[in-house]
Amino acid sequence: MVGMHGDEKNSTALKDGIRRWGRELGFDAIGFSGTRVDGAAEALDAWLVAGFHGEMDYMAAHVTPAGNKRALPTELVPGTRSIITARINYRPASADSQEALADGERAFVSRYALGRDYHKLLRARLQKLADRITDEIGEFAYRVFTDSAPVMEVGLAQNSGLGWRGKHTLLLDREAGSYFFLGEIFTDLPLAPDTPVTDHCGNCTACIDACPTQAIVAPYQVDARLCISYLTIELKGSIPEALRPLLGNRIYGCDDCQLACPWNRFAPLARETDFTPRHDLDRATLVELFAWDENDFNERLAGSPIRRIGFERWLRNIAVALGNAPPSEAVLGALRSRADHPLPLVREHVAWALARHATD
Question: Which amino acid positions bind [4Fe-4S] cluster 2, per UniProt (predicted)?
């Protein structure tokens, strides 16, 4: 297939081959997008002007005279003509979200973070896919991305037919729901884009209604400053006191908008064993996790996306959850054990949690 640039028949054959190789590598879907993400630049600018990005200053970075690179793939990677988009399911079989959320003594971790860090896994798989393409057609220009650079992943995936943007801003697919990761290969190959998927949310507002903090301020618009995923992962400092009771037992991320979505009734389980829950994170109690020392945290969460928040924020998050937990000697004992913690951020949230129990 060498020399298929510009040859529509050969281009179609290559796309078929890429889909087949993607499945062999464990991807659940492969699509193809052009380099335009219509409306993305305007939507991003409005979101940033509203301050909805909070402390995520990187969202406002990567601006060139032509605009924000997030909305301009050809500015991010000059020479890009096509983008290969890939999807891989992560929903674990053993993790009952509703059961975990209903038990205030247990810790809830977003389902995507229960196993190994998806960044490395997807990047390695995408590299293998690029290598397979090289074996078939020879050298070509490309760059692999997995939530690792200013890329409008959902817009590109929508353009490539992998789904549509739900009102919670995540990508949705009628057969796969939203429990999946996305990755991309920017390439100079002229691969015809697939047909975008139309919106199938209709009048449904289940995700908006389900958000504990009402962070979905309008359809397709999330104020990150209210989002539990932002508060427990991205926010480096103190969690606003008014929002702490709303976090419940969620110590890393939040899946409520996905749990409420009717399309996730059809979400398949992950085929990838690396996404299987590790260290019993799908059933651990708050008291157990709060007892970890920093070595425990670093060793047990090696290779986990959770490790990137660091031990200080880990303790901060669990302290809030313990403040929301049913009162017990175990809960109060755990909090008192950290009342004089050397880190002010931890002490503050422990004091709040203890005071909360004192007023119950």
Answer: 211, 227, 254, 257
Per DSSP, helices labelled H in 231-343 are 256-260, 286-290, 294-300, 310-324, 329-337
Instruction: Average the pLDDT over 122-148 and give the result.
Output: 94
82 is in an annotated binding site: no
Q: Which two tokens stand for residue 89?
A: 């399911």
Beta bridge partners, 109, equal 252
Kindly compute the dihedral angle of the four CA atoms of residues 280, 281, 287, 292, in this order, to the nearest 10 degrees.
90
Q: Is 227 annotated as a binding residue?
A: yes
Q: Is residue 172 marked as binding?
A: no
Domain boundaries, the chain: 1-93+112-220+256-277
Q: Residues in the chain, how many?
A: 360
For residues 59 and 42, give the distance between their C-alpha atoms in angstroms, rounded to a whole number: 14
Residue-wise pLDDT for 80-91, tens only, equals 999 999 999 999
332 is an annotated ligand-binding site residue:
no
Instruction: Say whether pLDDT at 20 is over 60.
Output: yes
Each residue's pLDDT tens digit, 167-204: 999 999 999 999 999 999 999 999 999 999 899 999 99
For this structure, is 147 an active site residue?
yes
Percentage helix, strand, coil for the chain under 3-state DSSP, each rounded to 5: 45, 15, 40
Q: Which of 147, 188, 194, 199 is catalytic?
A: 147
How far apart, in whole angstroms, are the C-alpha atoms of residue 231 and residue 321? Answer: 13
Mean pLDDT over 130-140 rounds to 97
Q: Helix H segments across the chain? A: 8-24, 40-49, 73-76, 97-102, 118-137, 153-159, 206-210, 228-229, 256-260, 286-290, 294-300, 310-324, 329-337, 344-358
